[in-house]
Amino acid sequence: MVHAGNQKIKNKEQSPRVAELREELRRKIAAHTLNAGAHATAILGLTLYRRTAPSACYPAMYEPSLNVFVQGRKRITLAGTTYLCDESTFLLSSIDVPVVSQIMAASENVPLLSLLLKLDMVVVREILSQEEFHAPDGSSPARGITIGKTTVDLLKPFCRLLDLLDAPEDIPFLSNLIQRTHGNVNPSSSLPRVDGDEPTSIPETASISCRARTNAR
Protein backbone atom coordinates (compact mmCIF):
# COMPACT_ATOMS: atom_id res chain seq x y z
CA MET A 1 0.00 0.00 0.00
CA VAL A 2 1.20 3.48 -0.80
CA HIS A 3 0.74 6.16 1.84
CA ALA A 4 0.26 9.88 1.42
CA GLY A 5 3.03 12.12 2.70
CA ASN A 6 0.56 14.81 3.80
CA GLN A 7 -1.40 12.58 6.16
CA LYS A 8 -4.70 13.86 7.59
CA ILE A 9 -3.84 17.51 7.18
CA LYS A 10 -5.96 19.78 9.32
CA ASN A 11 -8.23 21.97 7.26
CA LYS A 12 -7.30 25.17 9.00
CA GLU A 13 -8.71 28.33 7.55
CA GLN A 14 -6.23 30.02 5.29
CA SER A 15 -5.72 33.71 5.87
CA PRO A 16 -7.34 36.02 3.32
CA ARG A 17 -3.87 37.23 2.34
CA VAL A 18 -2.69 33.70 1.48
CA ALA A 19 -5.78 33.14 -0.67
CA GLU A 20 -5.27 36.50 -2.36
CA LEU A 21 -1.60 35.81 -3.18
CA ARG A 22 -2.40 32.31 -4.37
CA GLU A 23 -5.00 33.69 -6.77
CA GLU A 24 -2.58 36.38 -7.95
CA LEU A 25 0.09 33.77 -8.66
CA ARG A 26 -2.47 31.56 -10.40
CA ARG A 27 -3.43 34.43 -12.74
CA LYS A 28 0.20 35.21 -13.52
CA ILE A 29 1.06 31.60 -14.34
CA ALA A 30 -2.08 31.28 -16.49
CA ALA A 31 -1.21 34.45 -18.40
CA HIS A 32 2.24 33.11 -19.31
CA THR A 33 1.12 29.56 -20.18
CA LEU A 34 -1.51 29.93 -22.89
CA ASN A 35 -0.90 26.40 -24.16
CA ALA A 36 -0.56 23.10 -22.31
CA GLY A 37 2.96 21.98 -21.48
CA ALA A 38 6.15 23.18 -19.82
CA HIS A 39 7.13 26.80 -20.48
CA ALA A 40 10.72 27.87 -19.89
CA THR A 41 11.03 31.54 -18.99
CA ALA A 42 13.63 34.28 -19.40
CA ILE A 43 14.42 33.83 -15.69
CA LEU A 44 17.19 31.27 -15.28
CA GLY A 45 15.86 28.06 -13.67
CA LEU A 46 12.18 29.08 -13.67
CA THR A 47 9.68 26.93 -15.58
CA LEU A 48 5.89 27.34 -15.62
CA TYR A 49 3.49 24.45 -16.20
CA ARG A 50 -0.04 24.09 -17.55
CA ARG A 51 -1.56 20.62 -17.74
CA THR A 52 -5.05 20.20 -19.17
CA ALA A 53 -5.81 16.51 -18.60
CA PRO A 54 -5.14 13.78 -16.04
CA SER A 55 -2.25 11.49 -16.90
CA ALA A 56 -1.10 7.94 -16.40
CA CYS A 57 1.86 7.37 -14.09
CA TYR A 58 5.18 8.40 -15.61
CA PRO A 59 8.79 8.39 -14.36
CA ALA A 60 10.49 11.73 -13.70
CA MET A 61 13.68 13.06 -12.14
CA TYR A 62 13.50 15.91 -9.63
CA GLU A 63 16.56 18.15 -9.37
CA PRO A 64 17.13 20.42 -6.35
CA SER A 65 14.16 22.72 -6.78
CA LEU A 66 11.14 24.37 -5.23
CA ASN A 67 7.75 23.56 -6.77
CA VAL A 68 4.65 25.62 -6.06
CA PHE A 69 1.20 24.39 -7.07
CA VAL A 70 -1.67 26.87 -7.37
CA GLN A 71 -4.37 24.84 -9.15
CA GLY A 72 -5.12 21.18 -9.87
CA ARG A 73 -3.83 18.07 -8.16
CA LYS A 74 -0.76 15.88 -8.67
CA ARG A 75 0.55 12.72 -7.05
CA ILE A 76 4.29 12.08 -6.64
CA THR A 77 5.63 8.74 -5.41
CA LEU A 78 9.12 8.23 -4.02
CA ALA A 79 10.34 4.93 -2.56
CA GLY A 80 6.85 3.71 -1.72
CA THR A 81 5.62 6.99 -0.20
CA THR A 82 3.09 9.09 -2.08
CA TYR A 83 2.82 12.88 -1.79
CA LEU A 84 -0.44 14.56 -2.78
CA CYS A 85 0.08 18.08 -4.10
CA ASP A 86 -2.85 20.47 -4.55
CA GLU A 87 -3.38 24.22 -4.96
CA SER A 88 -2.09 24.95 -1.45
CA THR A 89 1.11 22.91 -1.65
CA PHE A 90 4.81 23.46 -2.16
CA LEU A 91 7.32 20.67 -2.72
CA LEU A 92 11.03 21.07 -1.99
CA SER A 93 13.49 18.65 -3.55
CA SER A 94 16.92 18.77 -1.91
CA ILE A 95 18.75 16.26 -4.13
CA ASP A 96 18.33 14.54 -7.50
CA VAL A 97 15.61 11.94 -6.91
CA PRO A 98 13.76 9.61 -9.30
CA VAL A 99 9.98 9.67 -8.74
CA VAL A 100 6.79 8.46 -10.34
CA SER A 101 4.34 11.28 -11.09
CA GLN A 102 0.67 11.33 -12.00
CA ILE A 103 -1.61 14.28 -12.73
CA MET A 104 -4.81 13.60 -10.83
CA ALA A 105 -6.97 16.66 -11.53
CA ALA A 106 -6.64 18.89 -14.62
CA SER A 107 -8.90 20.00 -17.46
CA GLU A 108 -9.11 22.61 -20.20
CA ASN A 109 -11.33 24.79 -17.99
CA VAL A 110 -9.43 24.18 -14.75
CA PRO A 111 -5.85 23.25 -15.69
CA LEU A 112 -3.16 22.19 -13.30
CA LEU A 113 -0.96 25.27 -12.86
CA SER A 114 2.41 25.20 -11.14
CA LEU A 115 5.93 26.53 -11.27
CA LEU A 116 9.34 25.06 -10.66
CA LEU A 117 12.40 27.04 -9.62
CA LYS A 118 15.73 25.20 -9.74
CA LEU A 119 17.75 25.96 -6.63
CA ASP A 120 21.42 26.30 -5.93
CA MET A 121 22.48 23.74 -3.33
CA VAL A 122 23.62 26.56 -1.05
CA VAL A 123 20.01 27.81 -0.91
CA VAL A 124 18.67 24.30 -0.30
CA ARG A 125 21.09 23.73 2.59
CA GLU A 126 20.17 27.12 4.06
CA ILE A 127 16.47 26.21 4.04
CA LEU A 128 16.98 22.74 5.49
CA SER A 129 19.41 23.87 8.21
CA GLN A 130 16.95 26.18 9.94
CA GLU A 131 16.53 25.15 13.57
CA GLU A 132 12.73 25.05 13.52
CA PHE A 133 12.49 22.96 10.36
CA HIS A 134 10.30 19.91 11.01
CA ALA A 135 8.80 17.67 8.34
CA PRO A 136 5.71 15.48 8.74
CA ASP A 137 5.95 11.68 8.70
CA GLY A 138 7.14 10.41 5.34
CA SER A 139 8.18 13.91 4.26
CA SER A 140 11.77 14.33 5.30
CA PRO A 141 14.88 16.00 3.89
CA ALA A 142 16.66 12.63 4.27
CA ARG A 143 14.26 11.21 1.66
CA GLY A 144 15.09 14.06 -0.70
CA ILE A 145 11.58 15.53 -0.78
CA THR A 146 9.71 17.76 1.65
CA ILE A 147 6.11 18.91 1.18
CA GLY A 148 4.22 21.67 2.95
CA LYS A 149 1.56 24.37 2.78
CA THR A 150 2.27 27.65 1.00
CA THR A 151 2.30 30.83 3.09
CA VAL A 152 2.45 34.57 2.50
CA ASP A 153 6.24 34.52 2.94
CA LEU A 154 6.58 31.92 0.21
CA LEU A 155 4.00 33.23 -2.27
CA LYS A 156 4.95 36.90 -2.18
CA PRO A 157 8.49 36.51 -3.65
CA PHE A 158 7.15 34.28 -6.42
CA CYS A 159 4.54 36.90 -7.35
CA ARG A 160 7.33 39.48 -7.59
CA LEU A 161 9.47 37.08 -9.60
CA LEU A 162 6.74 36.53 -12.19
CA ASP A 163 6.22 40.29 -12.45
CA LEU A 164 9.71 40.43 -13.97
CA LEU A 165 8.49 38.47 -17.00
CA ASP A 166 6.70 41.67 -18.03
CA ALA A 167 9.86 43.73 -17.50
CA PRO A 168 12.63 41.64 -19.11
CA GLU A 169 15.16 44.45 -18.85
CA ASP A 170 15.07 44.08 -15.04
CA ILE A 171 15.55 40.29 -15.00
CA PRO A 172 19.39 40.13 -14.89
CA PHE A 173 19.63 42.09 -11.64
CA LEU A 174 16.31 41.71 -9.82
CA SER A 175 15.67 37.99 -10.40
CA ASN A 176 18.75 37.01 -8.35
CA LEU A 177 17.79 39.48 -5.63
CA ILE A 178 14.24 38.11 -5.36
CA GLN A 179 15.33 34.47 -5.49
CA ARG A 180 17.71 35.00 -2.56
CA THR A 181 14.71 35.92 -0.40
CA HIS A 182 13.48 32.32 -0.69
CA GLY A 183 16.40 31.22 1.42
CA ASN A 184 15.04 33.36 4.26
CA VAL A 185 11.58 31.78 4.24
CA ASN A 186 10.94 29.64 7.32
CA PRO A 187 9.51 26.38 5.96
CA SER A 188 8.36 25.25 9.42
CA SER A 189 5.55 27.79 9.26
CA SER A 190 4.48 26.28 5.94
CA LEU A 191 4.41 22.61 6.82
CA PRO A 192 1.03 20.91 7.22
CA ARG A 193 -0.05 19.72 10.65
CA VAL A 194 -0.56 15.99 10.94
CA ASP A 195 -3.10 14.34 13.25
CA GLY A 196 -3.08 10.68 14.28
CA ASP A 197 -0.88 7.79 13.29
CA GLU A 198 -2.93 6.30 10.50
CA PRO A 199 -1.82 7.35 7.00
CA THR A 200 -4.23 8.30 4.26
CA SER A 201 -4.36 5.47 1.72
CA ILE A 202 -4.13 5.70 -2.03
CA PRO A 203 -6.53 3.27 -3.78
CA GLU A 204 -4.69 -0.04 -4.25
CA THR A 205 -5.73 -0.30 -7.91
CA ALA A 206 -4.08 3.03 -8.67
CA SER A 207 -0.96 1.95 -6.77
CA ILE A 208 -0.71 -1.27 -8.77
CA SER A 209 -1.17 0.68 -12.00
CA CYS A 210 1.70 3.02 -11.11
CA ARG A 211 4.02 0.17 -10.18
CA ALA A 212 3.19 -1.75 -13.33
CA ARG A 213 3.85 1.21 -15.58
CA THR A 214 7.10 2.00 -13.80
CA ASN A 215 8.36 -1.58 -14.05
CA ALA A 216 7.48 -1.70 -17.75
CA ARG A 217 9.82 1.20 -18.54
Q: What are its keywords?
A:
single chain, disordered C terminus, globular, Jelly Rolls, 11 strands, 5 helices, six-stranded antiparallel β-sheet, five-stranded mixed β-sheet, alpha+beta, 217 residues
Mean of residue pLDDT? 74
Shape: globular
The CATH class turns out to be Mainly Beta
Subunit arrangement of the protein: single chain
Tally the beta strands: 11
- CATH overall fold name: Jelly Rolls
Strand order of the largest sheet: 2-3-10-5-8-11
Integer-rounded radius of gyration = 17 Å
Beta-sheet strand percentage? 25-35%
The CATH architecture classification is Sandwich
- Return the structural class: alpha+beta
Total DSSP helices: 5
The portion of residues assigned to helices is 25-40%
Q: What do these coordinates show?
A:
It is globular, with a radius of gyration of 17 Å. The protein has a single domain, classed as Jelly Rolls. The protein has helices at 16-31, 121-128, 152-163, 171-180, 204-216, and strands spanning 3-4, 37-40, 46-51, 58-62, 65-71, 73-78, 81-85, 89-93, 97-105, 112-118, 145-149. The chain has a 6-stranded antiparallel β-sheet. Residues 1-12, 131-141, 183-209 and 211-217 have low confidence and may be disordered. The chain has 217 residues and is an alpha+beta fold.
